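Long-time lurker, finally posting.

We've been working with DUF2267 domain-containing protein (Streptosporangium roseum) and I want a structural starting point before designing mutants. I don't trust myself to interpret raw outputs, so I'm hoping someone here can both generate the structure tokens and explain anything notable. Sequence follows.
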Amino acid sequence: MEYKEFVQTVAERAGLSREEAADLTRATLGALGDRLSAGEARHLALQLPEPLRESLPVKDKSEQFGLHDFVVRVSNRTGLTVQEATGGVRAVLTTLRETIPGEAFDHVMSQLPGEFQEMVESTT
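Top reply, 14 upvotes:
Generated this for you. Predicted structure of DUF2267 domain-containing protein:
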């Protein structure tokens, strides 16, 4: 999936403008980079459309925090309410699942608490 299509899909799922969806996507990837191991973040970045790769930080040490703190980080980075950020994170994770190979997505999700899996919408 190309960058514009990715952002448009997130916008439609989250009920946001394209600009808000782009900001939300960058913020969600930033929070993912905080949470993932350096190797997993690098691997995920390679699967993303080029403009999104720089939004995913690679850190020497991953931070441990749950879904609520993740959503609050996204909310703080975007200015969206926690409720809007929750829907936005759901939209980004679901779009990621459709964009990157299944095995790569499964590896990302394996580093996150189970509550993150519940955020991914079923699209079948």
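Before you design anything, note these points.
The chain has a mean pLDDT of 92.
The chain is about 70% helix and 0% strand.
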